[in-house]
Write a structure and sequence with these properties.
Three copies of one chain form a homotrimer.
Chain A: E1 2-8, H1 10-13, H2 20-31, E2 35-42, H3 46-58, E3 64-68, H4 79-83, E4 89-90, H5 92-105, E5 116-119, E6 122-127, H6 131-141, H7 145-152
Parallel strand pairs in A: 1-2, 1-3, 3-6
Antiparallel strand pairs in A: 4-5, 5-6
Helix pairs in contact in A: 2-6, 5-6
Chain lengths: ~160, ~160, ~160
């Protein structure tokens, strides 16, 4: 299954910071038999974030989009505001599960404004920007992602979770 | 107190599948002293789902509406999109509690897009379609339902939870 | 850091009930080195609630607004409906964490419709109206509040939670 990793960070976009989180997510996905077909770095602004999401979901070739960054409370953190309006279906349980596992490790994970949902049969997850927050969030839901993709693409019948 | 159980399933509506979940919910409710006054089976389409919700909440005779089915990620799963716009008050905590207890059993419960809320003094819960998902979700909140009904009908004072 | 405590209660507003919850929150905040710069009591009506929130967030002098009351399921409980439309950023994880810690103590905490978010660099938390519900909710998030304020005011870099 094909994934895209979008790093949302002014610092990385302007090459003042290394994209540690994007690389860490890439590695976890590859280890778990995902093909990371696309990686992008965009600044913390709503239009470029939405442009990437729209492009990557329009053709139906990407099964999973993972964004990292911009989910915090800072003035420049706008990822949820960019992603949520593009979701046709919200999957609140995935965002809840990422934070639930997060707060088991540190209560500051409650400050992550991660959202999750579906657009045009692509699953979209917005993860925190820090390497630790991003990788912990992905690990929290990694096991259910293949089944989620099967479900949203109609490749499987309703099951015990739906 | 009076409950309605609405099964949302193309398969059950077209009599290709037995309504196992609807019957299981009926049984749990009856055992817990609820009167199941109405049972319905509707297809996975927004208009018939909304029609049932509107009819059952307009007269104020039903205290609790439980739907089962259509909360997953599949292309035909539209229950949250049908139910959420009709809620005057969302009760996110009930949906969270159903998923929280669910993920303690299987992480796939995070994929349930259950919503909960109030319309015209009727509590509405949308449960997953599988017998296991539906019954586990109901069990997770069963204990608090009578008090929730008392509160939303104004029969009791604010208490420690409100 | 400066906090405001708004008690939302018809009973307290009309002086038929003592504002036990407001006083309890005041005490916890003061003990934890917050300056409670403003306390108010408003009735359970959307316009006066929104008026207070708007006044207290317009000048940017208050870092944290805590409301208590009106988060239940009763016909007069309208705090989430008053507060949510004023939030520029929702912080779902804080509301989830308050309910998560709540249900560890009593499952009735699932009925709290607390919301949390940011308006004009002020963090806003809506807590239940009962002394027990209000204080437990505040205790659940108290540790992360100073960091949340730093983040939303841009005084700190993105960290492991954002």
């Amino acid at each position: 299954m094909k994934a895209a990793v979008i790093t949302i960070s002014d610092g990385c976009f302007h090459e003042k910071k290394e994209d540690t989180s994007g690389r860490a997510l890439h590695q976890i996905l590859t280890k778990n038999k995902w093909v990371v077909a696309v990686t992008r770095i965009v600044p913390d602004k709503i239009p470029p974030i939405q442009k990437q999401i729209l492009e990557l979901t329009d053709h139906g070739e990407i099964d999973l989009i993972i964004t990292t960054g911009g989910t915090g409370l800072g003035p420049r953190d706008v990822t949820p505001e960019a992603v949520a309006p593009l979701l046709e279906k919200e999957v609140a349980g995935l965002a809840e599960l990422m934070r639930l596992r997060g707060v088991e490790s540190t209560e500051f994970a409650a400050l992550s404004r991660s959202v999750a949902g579906v657009r045009n049969r692509t699953l979209i997850l917005s993860l925190p920007g820090s390497p630790k927050g991003a990788t912990q969030s992905l690990q929290a839901v990694l096991k259910v992602l293949p089944h989620a993709i099967d479900l949203l693409q109609g490749r499987t019948e309703h099951d015990s979770s739906s």
